[in-house]
Amino acid sequence: MVSNRLIAALAAAAVICVPMARAFAEADAESLVNALNAVFGKHPGVRAAHTHGICVKGNFVPSADAASLTKAPHFNSKTPVGVIGRFSMGGGDPDAPNAQKDNVRGIAMHFDLGKGNNTDLLLISAPVFVAKDPDQFLKLLTTVATKDKDKIGAYFKDNPNSTRQGEWLNARPVPASYGTVNYWGVHAFTFTNADGKKQIFKYKALPVGGEAGISDDEAKKKDADFYRPELKDRLAKGPVQFTLTAILGEPGDPLDDPTALWPEDKRKSVTLGTISITDFEDAKTCDEAIFDPTNVVDGVEGPANDKIFPMRSQAYAVSFSRREAPQQ
Is 199 helix (H, G, I), strand (E, B) or coil? Predict the structure, then answer.
C-alpha cells in the first residue's frame, strides 16, 4: 500500500510540470500552492493546506445496502477494511487553533483494498467549498493575502458563493471534538452497481454519538491544540465512529460547483457503513504520500466537469513534492 501511494503521488507531481494554464486560465497547481503560502506562510516539510492534523487508524465495515449502489470492493467487503486517516484543521497554519469557529475540520482516509491497493475519501465539516473553480480559488487567496480589508470585502461582495462555507460554520457551535461533527464530501460522485445502474450522490459522515459543540466562551478558554488530548481520552473509552452515508442526487442538482448546497433535507440518504477510528497512528504514515480525492476505484466515479476536483489532486502533489524537498 505504501509504495503504490508514493508512486502515484510522484507521478502526479511529474504531470504538474506540464503547464496547466490552458485548462484553467490563470490558476494552476503551482500558483495555488504559492497562493496558500502567501496567505499562511511557508512552512518547510509540511502540507500547504490542512497543515495541522492528527494521523489515526481504524476500519470500515460496509452496510448491507451499500452493494445495491456500488460494486466498489470496499463497499462489498465481507470483512472490515483497514483505514488510515487524518483529522485536520483547514488552511495552512501548522498551529491553527482548534477553537477557530470559521475554519473547517477535515478527515481524509485511505481504505486498504489489499495487495498494495487503496482508495481515498476526503471530507470536511461543511457541505460546500469556498470556490467553484481554480481561478476563483486563486483570486480568493491572492485577495486575502493582500490583507486589505476593502479589497477582501469587495471580493466577497462580488463572489457571494465564497461566503457560504464561512456562513455555515459561523452559524454553528465550535465542534467539541473531531469526533462530534458531521463531515461532507463537497463533490458529486457517481456510483455504479453490479447491474450497471448509476446513482449520483454526495458523501456524508455522521458521528455515531451525535454532534456536540462548545460555546464561544468555552472555546476562548481552550488550549490551541485541545483536540489531541480530547481525542486521546475519547479513544481510551472506545472507537470514534461515524456512519458513512450517500446523499442521493436528483435531476437538477448541480454537479460541477462545490460551492452549491444540495437541499439535503429533501434528498434520500443510504447508509454505506461504519467508519471506526480506533487509535492514533504515526504521523509518518499519513505523510508518506497524499490523500487523493481522485483516487477512486471501479464502481465510483468522480465528477466530470467539476474543475476543483482534479486540481485538488494536482495541488496536493505539488505540496507533497515540496515537503519532500523543503528547500524548494
Answer: strand
Torsions phi, psi of 180, nearest 5?
Answer: -130, 35
- C-alpha to C-alpha distance for 273 and 251, rounded to whole angstroms: 25
Question: Which pLDDT score is estimated for 25?
Answer: 46
Nearest to 249 by CA among 231, 230, 262: 262
Which residue, among 152, 151, 91, has the nearest Cα to 125 in the 3D structure? 91
Distance CA 273, CA 65 (A): 8
Helix, coil or strand: residue 42: coil
DSSP 94: T
* Cβ-based neighbours of 242, under 8 Å, separated by 6 or more: 179, 183, 205, 206, 207, 208, 274, 275, 277
Q: What is the C-alpha to C-alpha distance for residues 231 and 146, in angstroms, rounded to an integer?
A: 36
C-alpha cell at 132: 467553484
Give the separation between CA 272 and CA 203, rounded to whole angstroms. Answer: 9
Unique residue bearing C-alpha cell 464561544: 216
Strand partners, 50: none
pTM of the model: 0.92
The contacts of residue 53 (CB under 8 Å, 6+ apart) are 47, 86, 87, 88, 89, 106, 286
Rounded Cα–Cα distance for residues 122 and 316 (Å)? 12
Cα separation, 255 vs 304, in Å, equals 8
Give Dmax (Cα) for the chain. 57
Mean pLDDT calculated for residue range 57-77: 98
